[in-house]
Amino acid sequence: MKIVSIVGARPEFVQATPISRALRPHHQEILVHTGQHYDYAMSQTFFEELNIPAPDYYLGVGSGSHAKQTAEMMVRMEEVLLAERPDVVVVRGDTNSTIAGALVAAKLGMPLAHVEAGERSFDRSMPEEINRLVTDRLADMHFCVSRTAVEHLADEGILGNVHWVGDVMYDVMLSQIEIARQKSTILQTLGVEAKGYALVTVHRAANTDDPARLTQIVDALNSVDETVIFPVHPRTRKALGQIEAVFAPHVRLIEPVGYFDIITLEESARLIATDSGGVQREAYFLGVPCITLRDETEWHETVSAGWNSLVGVETETILDAWRNFRPSGERPAIFGEGDAGRKIADILTASQQSTVADMALEKGVLV
Ligand code: UD1
Ligand code: UDP
User: Fold this and answer.
1) Domain chopping of the chain, boundaries
2) Architecture of domain 179-324
3) Model confidence over 98-131: pLDDT tens digits?
4) Going by CA atoms, what residue is nearest to atom 35 of ligand 1?
5) Which ligand is nearest to the CA of 129?
6) Annotated catalytic residue within 203, 233, 250, 300
């Protein structure tokens, strides 16, 4: 079977390895990197640390408005898919690289598999929600991280070929945490002690593109009484410059870090405050209290389990949670057993003879 796997943004690089490792011994995987993220710290570092195979195609699309970026990706992706004629196209998550891949594959009548299907924030002002809704509607195979995602798809009438496999991000965490503990020197470099600081990441458009919300977050960080380590996403760096944010000395802004350093920073943090989907889940995997700087989250199970507190961006609400949120107790295996990559590869393999061929036939494509 020939599979085209599409990646382009940071969370997609983190998620790439488990599926690639499980597929490559038996199948041909062609990796396409759209170039949505291109800084070394946002892209290449993950290929090096996680031994992701070098992309077969680098589309070099870069940044732009949603329409421009997505359209450029589609134009270049169409050429790749027409040249490669894969048996299945795999997209993941909810980025513009995801929706571009989904639209092109669907229009070429190629079977489409969506990893991390069925996640919903129910907030259509969020670009990722649009990307998810469209991708799930177009996909032929849906691989879900959580049982809630399966229910969301059912509510939308998507019932066939939906598989709860767990979270490939958990696979990655389990396979890399020991290596990170040995290799990362980030705590020494920053001169911080385990559990002696809080980790912050912020990059959601709703927070960075709204000066009032970003200012509230900055005010909260300036008001806490512990060291804050804040690896700053390039989008956020720009937005902080625009509002001319000034930080107190205990708030330490650093460049985005690689995977080994971020999971080390997460594991050793007393508290994580974030608007990232991946970081919310990683906090849960590691049993680190997480406060989420958003008004809604796709990862409700982490909130229900008591390990994530959805606080929004009101300065006082953030500070209250920051000081008082002290989760404890069980963390049920809501994200599976850490074998999502293998399960996805097995299902793709099993469907090779039957479903993939049937789906292509339905779409009038010869396989
Ligand atoms: C994208 C995804 C978001 C995901 C995030 C992960 C979409 C719509 N959003 O958001 O779901 O959570 O990636 O990090 O796809 N930039 C650089 N260097 C880079 C990449 C980006 O400087 O390597 C800057 C550019 O100014 C760019 C801005 O960051 O305009 C935003 O990048 P973009 O890829 O459009 O969206 P993200 O905010 O990164
Ligand atoms: N991440 C990283 N370095 C950083 C910040 C985040 O490696 O400086 C990792 C993070 O741990 C997770 C992935 O990037 O594995 C998530 O990406 P991001 O937060 O950019 O996007 P989201 O998950 O919100 O889509």
Assistant:
1) 2-166+337-362, 179-324
2) 3-Layer(aba) Sandwich (3.40)
3) 999 999 999 999 999 999 999 999 999 999 999 9
4) 63
5) 1
6) 203
Angstrom distance (rounded) from CA 278 to CA 295: 17
261-292 tens-digit pLDDT: 999 999 999 999 999 999 999 999 999 999 99
Which ligand neighbours the alpha carbon of 8 most closely? 1
CB proximity list for 112: less than 8 A, separation 6 or greater: 88, 89, 91, 101, 102, 105, 106, 138, 139, 140, 141
Which residues approach ligand 2 with their CB closer than 6 A? 10-11, 14, 201, 203, 231, 256-259, 262, 276-279, 282
CA distance readout (Å), 192 to 180, 187, 234, 262: 17, 5, 24, 14
Do 179-324 and 2-166+337-362 have the same topology in CATH?
Answer: yes
Please tell me the pTM assigned to this model: 0.96
* C-alpha 354 – ligand 1 centre gap (Å): 38
142 CA distance to ligand 2 centroid (A)?
Answer: 23
**Domain 2-166+337-362: what homologous superfamily?**
Glycogen Phosphorylase B; (3.40.50.2000)
